[in-house]
Amino acid sequence: MPGVRLLNSTSDADHNRSVLTFAGNPAPVAEAAFASVASAAAHIDLAKHEGVHPRVGAADVVPFVPIGGITLEQCAALAHATGERIWNELRIPVFFYEAAAQRPECARLENIRRRANSDLPPDIGEGRHPTAGYCVVGARHFLIAWNILLRSNDLAVAKSIAGEIRESGGGLPAVKALGLGLASQGKVQVSMNLVDFHRTPLYAVFDAVRHAAERRGVRIEGSELIGLIPQAALDGSKGHDLHWINLRPDLILEACLSASR
After folding, report:
1. pLDDT tens for each residue of 71-118
2. Residues 132, 44: contact at Cβ < 8 Å?
3. Which residues are catalytic?
4. How many Cβ atoms are within 10 Å of 83's Cβ, its own excluded?
5. Which of 23, 81, 94, 227 is most enclosed, with most CB atoms within 10 A?
6. 3-state secondary structure string, 170-200?
7. How many helices and strands (H and E) does the chain possess?
8. Angle subtended by helix axes 26-43 and 72-90, to nearest 10
9. d(Cα 173, Cα 167) in Å, to the nearest integer?
10. Rounded to an integer, what distance in angstroms lies between the CA atom of residue 81 and that of residue 70?
């Protein structure tokens, strides 16, 4: 898409999920987001899809994130316009979440995933697309997606740790977590979104997982970054060994943006 740069893409077989990070000016980014949803809908049939990561759509979630020169409110407006187009042109029902949410019950992505196929109707459209499901479109600040791999194949352990550390379970602020199994590796992981690294730094999350794992007689294999990470998040945990498996300079947000200019 002219005017848009693909900064990073991450895929893996166990999650059976791809994360694409792209940047540009608002209009071309919105166009690229719509084109990505259309492509996903054309190639992915949820009725035949398998993977450990929760999802409600072929293009599961489309967040607009302010990086510079735009506000969160303007990103929410982009989300609303893109969601309207997704329904009008692709006939995929749409939920709006986070800063673009139009109902309190849709503010949290996990609530939409839990209820979309039962008692929560979409914001735009009706029913459910037979192969593409729904699309969740929103606006939010930058979050850090990362997984901490455990030296264990016990899924109950990973789920227990995730339940202990996530905010909704009374754990750490700004932390969302799931315990997932990785059949290809014979291991399990605590899969997390850190939605505000200023409130809870990376090292605090890592230490909480490590201590919880040790109490269960399990050690950490390492931590894996999904997508990009802001330099400030790394600076906030400087001097702490987070057992990174894949961290490298081209996964730092500022370096990616600089290189793409």
Report:
1. 999 999 999 999 999 999 999 999 999 999 999 999 999 999 999 999
2. yes
3. 53
4. 28
5. 94
6. CCCCCEEEEEEEECCCCEEEEEEEECCCCCC
7. 7, 9
8. 40
9. 5
10. 16
